[in-house]
Amino acid sequence: MADHHSINTILITGGAGFIGSNFIPYFLDKNPSIKVVNLDVLTYAGDLGNLKEVENHPNYTFVKGDICDNLLVKNLFEKYNISGVINFAAESHVDNSINSPRQFIKTNIEGTFNLLENARTFWKGKNNRFHHISTDEVYGSLGGNGFFTEESNYQPNSPYSASKASSDFLVRSYYHTYGMNVVTSNCSNNYGPKQHDEKLIPTIIRSAINGVKIPIYGNGKNIRDWLFVKDHCRGIGSIYHKGKAGETYLLGGNNEYDNLTIATKICKILDIKIPKKKRSYKDQIEFVEDRLGHDFRYAIDASKVSKELSWKANESFDSGLEKTVDWYLNKYQL
Fold first, then answer.
1. pLDDT at residue number 7
2. Could you give the residue ranges of the DSSP H alpha helices within 58-188?
3. Phi-psi category of 51—alpha, beta or left, where left has phi over 0 and alpha has psi -120 to 50?
4. Which of 30, 63, 164, 249 has the fewest Cβ atoms within 10 angstroms?
5. Residues 90, 108 contacting (CB under 8 angstroms)
6. Catalytic residues
7. Which pLDDT belongs to residue 4?
8. Structural domain tally of the chain?
9. What is the residue range of 70's domain?
10. Is residue 175 part of a domain?
11. Is residue 95 in a domain?
């Protein structure tokens, strides 16, 4: 367990991305004695606009830079006396990993290694915490039943999930080889405010209100477990503070839906909020060629984190989805 008296400044990487930009305001609010340095290279998927609420916070500092930049990371550890790391930084869009995998290997594997190695060197055996954020996609694909658990075998099927699996193993190795105080959390699909437009739920909302076809891969039957991002943030906070060193924790929302159902649910919400004359938004749904290596189903058994850290997802999928739609309608000023 982390020694909280020594925790002053933590390095959060990728904090301008979807999950990170939800987590930082939450974490600063819950931990008034902790300072946060947010290191983000601001790729297309990072947006400082998502951190407006904390940009003038006395305990918050933003640094633009790459986790692969060894000298920069080393300087940050020394300058800010970094005493903890939460690593969100990752290339995460599966389609992009299929089209151009190289950047995924660099950021997700080399970047994680660079953070681990700098933390190990700077902390010199101190019991400081390194929390690595990962994904359920490392476990591959499930059939019609069963769940991923912390004991599931790794079977990544895309360059994205393979790169995340590699980084998970690196983190594990720093615990077993160097005794470093690491934890890893693997989450199911997140949804909620601040998600990049390329992802499934924002794409459905944007396409619907723009009057264009809503693209759904294959037959729309691929199933994901959905976790509201604010619930995920609470889970990360619990694991960072109370998780057992060397352990992995799975965070899931227990909300399994196929893609077609999600598109239909969003269209129903929009039919009420901004109705169209005489027709439903769901008339815009169109099936498109399936993604290469598209995993059929992911589902998470989150009983370990529930039992050990008393965490569970609170947000119902329907209420979370409505909050998400509202956020995008506000963003598009509709």
1. 53
2. 70-80, 94-99, 102-104, 112-123, 159-178
3. alpha
4. 30
5. yes
6. 136-137, 160
7. 42
8. 1
9. 4-194+226-256+296-315
10. yes
11. yes
